[in-house]
Amino acid sequence: MSEASDYYSVLGVGRDASPAEIKKQYRKLARQHHPDVNPGDKAAEERFKQISTAYEVLSHEEKRKLYDEFGVEGLRSGFDPEQARAYQRWSDDRAASGGREQDIPFDFDFGDLFGARGARGRRAREVTGLAGEDVLATLRLDFVTALRGTQITVRVPVVTPCPTCAGSGDEPGSTPQTCPECDGTGRVQLGKGPMKVTTVCPRCGGDGKIHTPCPTCKGEGTVQTEQSVEVRIPPGVDDGSDLRVRGKGGPGIAGGPPGDMIIRTVVEPHAFFTRDGLDLTLKLPITYSEAYSGASVSVPTPSGSVQMKVPARAQNGQKLRLRGKGVTRGDNTGDLYVELQVRVPDQSDETLDNALRDSDRLYSKPVREEIRL
Description:
about 375 residues, alpha+beta, Helix Hairpins, HSP40/DNAj peptide-binding domain, three-stranded mixed sheet, 18 strands, about 25% strand, elongated
């Protein structure tokens, strides 16, 4: 298995990694390799695609189970795990018997095992009620908009039924003919003996008919267009959050429901605030006077400015907590940690120089007493 198809290697996690570990590693790699962070870097763009594909599989419980048992083949449309297990049992039994043919005939269809490829267009006539594909869109948000939420209109690529052939894949007015290769069955047999192996007819694609393809969609039955979608971005979305908009993805197959649109957010960093989950940290400058004597200072928060008391003799780097002033997401709100940054005056003054020299006697112990290598 190549590294690109080994989704655990792509994310750099073990096969026993927890969902939380997988999500954390995905966010780290997605930020590092995102195309917006690496403009024009094709290698980073390809790496980002691999990371997104791996996360989509490993973050989904059922997809991860299929992948762990069958590899990437287990993720293909139409894959039947029970038939795959039956075939594996037959193979194991045959190996245990020294390769001798079994007494019971075994009729197995590889087309069903590995999933019918190209299920749209004429092939879709054999499939009923398949959900459409999900559409992934990336949305960049500034830090404040992500905290407060917004309403946006996004244009996303979508696959829709071909307007010329109404999704049939056939040229209008043409009449399908019986396939001479499979006599209209859609299947051809490979090999003989007690194990009858059949597969999809390569000439008609399993439909049993030879079609004249639609000139617009080339027989696929679908075309790619764009649609505008109104999306509400809730307050508190984080970098790497996935927002699912139901029913706004690709169209369903043979009457199946449409897929979803998944919006993956990329939140730009802020000059003064950093975020950890629902908690915020702010590096707040204060003056010598405010640090020494204490003061009441204004602090910006997501819900508006508040007054905060700076204690007397506050130290540079000291953190103060404002409860409930962090990020609000749903019914939960984090805290805001204010890290004090004592600023030295940027203009010279002789009186202040003398006063500061005299202030050395007010330290209870040498300030670098504990500093050693």
